[in-house]
Amino acid sequence: MGYYVYILKSKVDGTYYKGVTQNYLKRLEEHNSGFSNYTSNKIPWFIIYVEAHTDKRSALIRERKLKKCKSDYFEWLSLQPSNLLK
Questions:
Q1: Cβ neighbours of residue 58 closer than 8 Å, sequence gap 6 or more
Q2: Do 69 and 33 form a contact (C-beta atoms < 8 A)?
Q3: CA 85, CA 28: separation in Å to the nearest integer?
């Protein structure tokens, strides 16, 4: 099973959240159920970007890089062919 880097956007205030998981749909459910303390106060979330990785290490490296990016980049990224949601 592969790993996914995902980006969520809060419907409350437009905040972005970046994460790594093996099942991004289940993880979105967990975020919207208040499972994560970090995201529970900005529910509901929707997913704007998903990127596949073959191993956990590469996914974590990509997530770390995304955490340094600005919101304009996330909007641009969501429109790219690398987005599995497209």
A1: 3
A2: no
A3: 14
Instruction: Note the pLDDT tens digit of each residue in 19-72.
Output: 999 999 999 999 999 988 889 999 999 999 999 999 999 999 999 999 999 999
* H or E element, residue 5: strand 3-10
Q: Which CATH class is domain 3-78?
A: alpha beta
At 17, the amino acid letter reads Y
Question: What is the pairing mode between strands 16-21 and 3-10?
Answer: antiparallel
Query: In the chain, where are the structural domains located?
Result: 3-78
Residue 53, SS3?
Answer: strand
